[in-house]
Specification:
This protein is mostly beta strands. It contains one helix and nine strands. It has one domain (23-172): Immunoglobulin-like (Sandwich). It has one helix spanning 6-18; strands spanning 29-36, 43-51, 54-62, 67-69, 71-74, 114-116, 122-129, 144-149, 166-172. It has a seven-stranded antiparallel sheet, with no helix packed on it. A hairpin with a 2-residue loop joins β2 (43-51) and β3. Helix content is 7%, strand content 32%. Destroys radicals which are normally produced within the cells and which are toxic to biological systems. It catalyses: 2 superoxide + 2 H(+) = H2O2 + O2. Belongs to the Cu-Zn superoxide dismutase family. This is Superoxide dismutase [Cu-Zn].
Length: 176
């Protein structure tokens, strides 16, 4: 028996096994369009990419007042209410208190704050640990929504961080 013909088969098997969490066509990704709520001019695009242990959030939002704005995954994938309240509360399957995503206690839907420049534009690129896009269990976020709030998130006030009105909403729908 010769080993040489087995090497390509073994390499192919290892490559496929290593791509299991990525899916056949690469990483699991979702594109979300943030649409303004009634009376708001805030809009944007967010790309979510599942990575090892969490989700990479790449957000570009415009039409904001300069400064900080709360940004969260909300429990329902429904942006039909004029004020965005149909999205429900923060996504919190673990029942923890609201807090900064870098701290031990926080809602899984608590994201780092969006900070708008003098032109009202905000960019955020961060990995949020513990979330999955379409994975198994309670941590998956497909079927939920993203909300941009009017005020800065204080990461302390319960249950919302005192982030104020909902300025934009986008449903996290099926992965690409």
């Amino acid at each position: 028996m010769t080993i040489r013909p087995l090497i390509p088969t073994l390499l192919a098997s290892l490559l496929l096994a290593g791509c299991g969490s990525l899916g056949v066509n690469g990483p699991t990704k979702v594109e979300i369009t943030l649409a303004p709520t009634q009376g708001s001019k805030v809009s944007g695009q967010v790309q979510l990419t599942e990575v090892d242990g969490g989700v990479l959030v790449d957000a570009n939002v415009s039409g904001l007042a300069p400064g900080g704005h709360g940004f969260h995954v909300h429990e329902k994938g429904d942006c039909s209410a004029p004020d965005g309240t149909s999205a429900g509360g923060h996504f919190n399957p673990t029942g923890k208190a609201h807090g900064h995503p870098d701290k031990a206690d926080h809602h899984l839907g608590d994201l780092p704050m969006l900070v708008a420049d003098a032109n009202g534009d905000a960019k955020l690129r961060t990995i949020v640990n513990g979330l999955t896009i379409v994975g198994k269990g309670d941590n998956k976020i497909v079927g939920r929504s993203l909300i941009v709030h009017a005020a800065a998130d204080d990461f302390a006030t319960q249950p919302t961080g005192n982030s104020g009105a909902r300025l934009a909403c986008g449903v996290i729908s099926s992965a690409m």
